[in-house]
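Hi everyone,

Forwarding the result from last night's run.
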Amino acid sequence: MSISLTKGQKISLSKECPGLSHFTLGLGWNPNKYVGSFDFDLDASVFLLGKNGKVTCDEDFIFYKNLDHPSGAIHHTGDDKTGGNSEDGDDEQIIIDLTKVPDNIQKIAFTATIYDAEERDQNFGQVSNAYARLVDNKTGKELLRYDLGEEFSIETAIVVCEIYRHNGEWKYTAIGSGFSGGLGAICQNFGIDAE
């Protein structure tokens, strides 16, 4: 049975999901009805972070233009531009192999941003049913689920969740922290020059 998490909740993957090393983080969402003339294009991104909470190099930023980490630890399955149809399953997926995460990486942050949000006058207040779920690649079973709720208004980027090392264990935190300024703001937060 899947464990349902709330904002700020932490869980030990090593204890709750022993032996888990290969899994998929699925992200889903639906735009609210009558939100304007533009489709919604939400994008999942991943930041592999060192001890200082920043990327160690540009290759530690995984997104629709850089789908694979050189280590083989992270694979983004690609950009879904359909505007969100999570009733049919995940809108975007990230495949993770913890056995390949480089030793210098302490944390992996998973984010969602709205493409061209300012130009399209869009924000996460116009998105509903957003979630992140962790699925075991061996069994296909959903292990964890975090429903983000409806607490966002003007934000155009969200740190959804993080996986991090702590005392030899991998842990998961449901973050749900919003940013204005879209992908550029979230990149700057993690040490990437978005230009």
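The CA atoms of residues 133 and 145 lie 4 Å apart.

Cheers,
N.
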